[in-house]
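Hey, resending since the last one bounced:
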Amino acid sequence: MPGTGRGEVLGLDLGGAHLKAAFARDGRVLAARQVPCRLWEGLDRLAPAFDVALAGLPPPDRVALTMTGELADLFVDRAAGVAALVEAAAGRFPGGPLLIWAGREGFLPPDAARHNAAAVASANWLATASLAAARAGNGLLVDIGSTTTDILPLLAGAVRFAGYSDAERLAKGELVYQGLTRTPVMAMADRAPLAGAWVPLMNEYFATAADVWRLLGRLDEAHDQHPAADNGEKTTLASARRLARMVGADLGPDGAEGWRGLAEWLGGAQLRRIEDAVLLVLSRERVPASAPMVGAGCGRRLVSDLAGRLGRPYLDLAELIQVEPEAAAMAATCAPAVAVALLAG
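The structure tokens again:
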């Protein structure tokens, strides 16, 4: 991998459902991309995802990698997943240097990373939070992705996290399994108001959060990169049909508009779950009321909503970095990839 001497860094966030890439030169993000990568279906899904994510980008001076893909049930445990993904990345970038983000341990070379799986596994949140803390000083980072939400207090330029592993972070409210597109509707609520009654939602994978936000007109289709629950169309009518199934009903004569009320309630229910976790974290760390909520991820419009509900200013992650204007929106969506690119640079 030839170096250019211009501080060119490729940041990668290797997840279980998406591969995110960010290309930076001398601390300025020039490009950011997200491509679907259904890693649970096999490690062979990684190579074509790399091809798409890297198309047209020049060879970087170094590559910085973070991951959550080790959690995929393709692997027997996280240690095996970390080892396999580090090996795959090393094979893709044989010329090096390849730097693996290990959270509290900083960046490690591949061999050391393989032996520090607990530090490497699902540490991408700390990369984003470390960058945000260094740039914002005080605040509350809320990164709403396609599947999960990360909530981290930022105080005096430091990340004040209470948990490090997924298990610890779940228990502390810093990791919430609610996302903009991939969350099954049955995980957003267990019942919904319908025609004056509380109707239980079916515990079936009939619809996802993408259907809810699409029906409400608040989904950027570029963020919904995986098939719908029924492998059907991604239209408001099809989304309404899938939501109707969640309460044992058919679309009906009113079409999509007849199910907008259900979508509004489900969207509110998801936002309330995230808000509850935010309030839990804020009850532990007294982030100044004047400090902003820093929004990242494809669902950061919801972070702006939360900031308004809690009376806090909102700050988009893209406002904290140097980035080409045309890449700004995707850079905030691909926050961990951007973070490791800038931290490694």
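The two ends are 16 Å apart (CA to CA).

Sorry for the duplicate.
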